[in-house]
Design brief:
By secondary structure, the chain is an alpha/beta fold. The longest helix has 20 residues. The radius of gyration is 19 Å and the shape is globular. Bound molecules: pyridoxal-5'-phosphate.
Length: 324
């Protein structure tokens, strides 16, 4: 498919591997389970954020920005990889993070600061507090003569979603090489940019496979609204078919965003023991727990679990467990 995509700064090593989970699939009663290894996108430890950043950073450069202002939490995978990406292309990076500086600093924050990013904490645990703070900081930077490019939480913009629009075609082509022309896809939903891009990409391909979003951050209705909106904006930006695909959203928050959940811990242990997969407690382990739940109610045909990364937080969680 010829997509006239916006400019791209190549950061990732693509295509990411698509692996057949020969031990995990049967454990879940699935005939065929594949893992789309976007934890291995090959730049920093950014997982799914790298595909988004390729387009967001290119957009920043095209707009003549000299400073990236990226929003998130102290454990943000986006902020960590934005800091690394800004460094390699010669942009300054400031991070606007909700809450107060945690002690000890989480791995992602340490990595981001090691890449030269400056961090600002809003002092308010409300995740949306970063937005007003970022506006103020952008105004201050601008009045000092800087050109700022702001990246919202999750990199959830139509430009960022282009990375996943293209990833949908990558997956369809990889499965096609194994003679598979339909599959159920299970993917983690936070800000909705990843699934939004996939939805837009699938619509452009004229493919309507079952798509399952595991919402780890918001109620399903709100998560779906965000996914739909990003998918529509992404398709508009690219001039491709308007998405009209049915999604199934599953509430995978457990006790709440960022809170430990025993079902996610069990799912993570199973994935590691069976396939050597490393899942993080905030995003991917919860999404995998949703997949486990889905298998109990019946999932037809080949299934793809889209591994979106979270490696730094996964290691941190394991290290904490070891200390207890
Ligand atoms: C490891 C990981 N997986 C999944 C997600 C969710 O992706 P999205 O925000 O695009 O819905 C995130 C977002 O922060 C993430 O860091």
């Amino acid at each position: 498919m010829a997509v006239s995509a916006p400019e791209r700064v190549v950061l990732a090593s693509l295509p990411s591997p698509l692996q057949r989970a020969k031990r995990l699939g049967p454990r879940l009663g699935l005939e065929e389970l594949f893992i789309k290894r976007d934890d291995l996108t090959g730049f920093s430890l950014g997982g799914n954020k790298i595909r988004k950043l390729e387009f967001l950073i290119a957009d920043a450069l095209a707009q003549g920005a000299d400073t990236i202002l990226v929003m998130g939490g102290p454990r943000s995978n986006l902020c960590q990889s934005a800091a690394a990406a800004a460094r390699v292309v010669g942009l300054a990076c400031e991070m606007i993070l909700y809450g107060d500086r945690p002690s000890p600093a989480p791995a992602n924050l340490t990595l981001a600061e090691a890449s030269g990013a400056v961090s600002w904490f809003t002092g308010d645990d409300d995740r949306s507090s970063v937005e007003a703070f970022a506006k103020q900081r952008a105004a201050a930077l601008t009045s000092d003569g800087n050109r700022v490019y702001a990246i919202p939480r999750g990199g959830a913009t139509a430009v960022g979603a282009v990375g996943y629009h293209l990833a949908a075609a990558e997956l369809v082509s990889q499965l096609g090489e194994s003679g598979i022309d339909t599959a159920s896809i299970v993917v983690c939903v936070g800000s909705g940019g990843t699934l939004g891009g996939i939805v837009s990409g699938m619509a452009a391909l004229g493919v309507s496979w079952p798509l399952f979003g595991a919402s780890v951050s918001r109620e399903c209705v709100e998560a779906e609204r965000r996914v739909d909106s990003i998918a529509a904006e992404c398709a508009r930006l690219l001039g491709t078919a308007t998405p009209d695909l049915g999604l199934t959203m599953i509430d995978a928050r457990g006790p709440g965003y960022g809170q430990p959940w025993s079902a996610a811990e069990a799912a993570s242990d199973m994935a590691r023991e069976s396939e050597g997969l490393v899942l993080d407690p905030i995003y991917t382990a919860k999404a995998f727990a949703a997949l486990v739940e889905l298998t109990a109610t019946g999932l037809d045909g080949p299934v793809v679990f889209w591994h979106t990364g979270g490696t730094a937080t996964a290691l941190e969680a394991l290290a904490r467990k070891d200390c207890m």
